[in-house]
Design goal:
This protein has ten helices and no strands. The mean pLDDT is about 95. By secondary structure, the protein is mainly alpha-helical.
């Protein structure tokens, strides 16, 4: 795949949008690192440029402005990118609905999502699960303190995402990577 100047523009736009945001974790890591990890995974698993751009922007609506941000993404990067970002957003409501309700709705949505949404969503969950696993190895059970749910809920969520994705057309190698990472996370949490 060839990445055009649109990808560079999306990278700069995402970097500016998330400039002051850091990852939840034991050390302050710029949030852009997560966005790059998701985009890299999408590219590694054969994604298109629109999918790679959506990977860079997948948290923009949820974390940086809701519906107006989605409208801007649609204007700047087109309807295909905006539709993928929208499909990867678990809510744009403020305040956010309760955690369990949001996650149940998101999982139900994944069962019907487009292949492009599935690719970006799976890459996102893989990046998140890997980060949690790395942090767990560094700080132990304290890793769970940063979440708005219990460790059991978080593990339930990742395992249920894996099981839901099994019945979708998501890339099988990506799903296998996600499954292995979630299994390692479950084992480390014991």
């Amino acid at each position: 795949m060839h990445l055009s100047p649109r990808f560079s523009e999306a990278f700069v736009w995402a970097a500016n949008l998330h400039r002051d945001q850091v990852r939840k974790g034991p050390k302050p890591i710029p949030y852009l690192g997560h966005l790059l990890a998701v985009a890299s995974t999408v590219i590694d698993f054969g994604g298109t440029e629109d999918e790679a751009i959506a990977a860079l922007l997948h948290d923009a609506v949820e974390d940086q402005g809701g519906a107006p941000t989605l409208a801007m993404i649609r204007r700047l990067f087109g309807p295909a990118v905006a539709d993928i970002v929208d499909g990867c957003t678990d809510t744009d409501q403020q305040p956010k609905p309760p955690w369990q309700l949001r996650k149940e709705r998101y999982i139900a949505h994944l069962a019907e999502a487009s292949p492009s949404v599935l690719l970006v969503a799976a890459a996102d969950k893989l990046a998140n699960a890997r980060s949690i696993l790395i942090d767990m190895r560094e700080v132990g059970a304290a890793v769970w303190d940063r979440f708005h749910c219990t460790p059991q809920q978080s593990l339930w969520y990742y395992r249920t995402v894996v099981e839901t994705l099994r019945s979708t057309p998501v890339n099988r190698q990506l799903l296998a990577e996600l499954d292995q990472t979630v299994t390692a996370l479950e084992q480390a949490a014991k």
